[in-house]
Amino acid sequence: MTTSKPASATGDDQDTAQRAGKLERNYWRLWWANGVNSVGNGAFAAALPLLAATLTHDPRQISLIAAVTFLPWLLLSLPAGVLIDRYDRVALM
After folding, report:
1. 25-55 vs 59-68: helix crossing angle, rounded to 10
2. Cα dihedral: 71, 76, 77, 82 (round 10)
3. Which residues contact 49 (CB under 8 A, 6 or more apart)?
4. Which long-range contacts (CB under 8 A, 24 or more apart) does 11-20 make?
5. How deeply is 69 buried, as exposed, middle or buried, from its count of CB atoms within 10 A (0-12, 13-18, 19+)?
6. Do 18 and 24 meet the contact criterion of CB atoms below 8 Å apart?
7. Which of 7, 24, 55, 62 is deepest in the core (most CB within 10 A)?
8. Are the C-beta atoms of 46 and 52 separated by less than 8 Å?
């Protein structure tokens, strides 16, 4: 009884399998850009109430400024998502 190698482990197929395991440079650039963006958003969300605390000592105003930070997302992103879901995605692109 002889054993044969699987087709994916021979010759050019093996090189293709090794290359398929590596991610492209564009993926890593996008991954890092997303990470930097997330850190920046987190720093902004933390720094804005701290800045407000240096300007006023009223806790209601500080919490209002922290809440208003997310107001554009609430007012624009959610309705835009609803509208996009109602129309053909290919036509929108």
Report:
1. 160
2. 130
3. 62, 63, 65, 66
4. none
5. middle
6. no
7. 62
8. no
Reported as a pLDDT band with limits 50, 70 and 90, residue 37 is: very high
- Please name the amino acid found at residue 76: L
Alpha-carbon distances, residue 53 vs 42, 47, 59, 66, 70 (angstroms) = 17, 10, 8, 11, 18
pLDDT tens per residue across span 59-85:
999 999 999 988 988 899 988 999 889
Burial tier of 40 (Cβ tally within 10 Å: 0-12, 13-18, 19+): exposed
pTM: 0.58
